[in-house]
Amino acid sequence: MFLKLMVKWLINSVAVFVASYLVKGIIIEHFWAGVIAAAVLGIVNAFIKPVIFILTLPITLLTLGFFTLIINALMLRLVSWAVDGFVVSGFWAAFWGALIISIVSWFISMVFDSEIRLVRGGRR
């Protein structure tokens, strides 16, 4: 369980650093700010995002899920407010950053998951 949590944190950290490299308005002032931002983003996504999602479910359904992207951007802005050294300047930087973080973390998780299945399948 602990190892799985650490791997997820590492994946999110990589995704946050990729987003800061690709999106002009996302700045990581030092390495630990990026790592801490990834941890805080994980906590925010685990506890705050579900509540916000349920509260905004009608508008999310009305927009066919597009509003989820807005929620993700707002969660990233919340993290930038909470973590010193992690700056997200503006809504559009948060929007594109959240989209990139989602795509990168999904892709890395998919690659690691398939690699683990190959290793476990080979041991049987």
Output the keywords.
single chain, 124 residues, mainly alpha, two-stranded antiparallel sheet, 2 strands
Topology, element by element:
Layout: H1 2-22, E1 26-28, H2 31-55, H3 57-62, H4 67-82, E2 86-88, H5 91-123
Antiparallel strand pairs: 1-2
Helix pairs in contact: 1-2, 1-5, 2-4, 4-5
Structural summary, described in words:
The protein is 81% helix and 5% strand. Strands 1-2 form a two-stranded antiparallel sheet. The longest helix is centred in the last third of the chain and has 33 residues, at 91-123. It has helices at residues 2-22, 31-55, 57-62, 67-82, 91-123; strands spanning 26-28, 86-88. It is mainly alpha-helical and 124 residues long. It has one domain. The model has no long low-confidence stretch (mean pLDDT 93). It contains 5 helices and 2 strands; from the N terminus they run αβαααβα.
Provide a quick synopsis of the model:
Helix content is 81%, strand content 5%. The chain has helices at 2-22, 31-55, 57-62, 67-82, 91-123; strands spanning 26-28, 86-88. It has a two-stranded antiparallel ribbon.
Strand content: under 5%
Kindly give the count of domains: 1
Secondary-structure class = mainly alpha
Outline type:
globular
Kindly provide the radius of gyration, computed on alpha-carbon positions and rounded to a whole number of angstroms. 16 Å
| SSE arrangement, N to C | HEHHHEH
Mean pLDDT: 93
- Count every beta strand, where a strand is a DSSP E run of 2 or more residues: 2
**Widest sheet: strand order?**
1-2
What portion of residues is helical?
Answer: over 70%
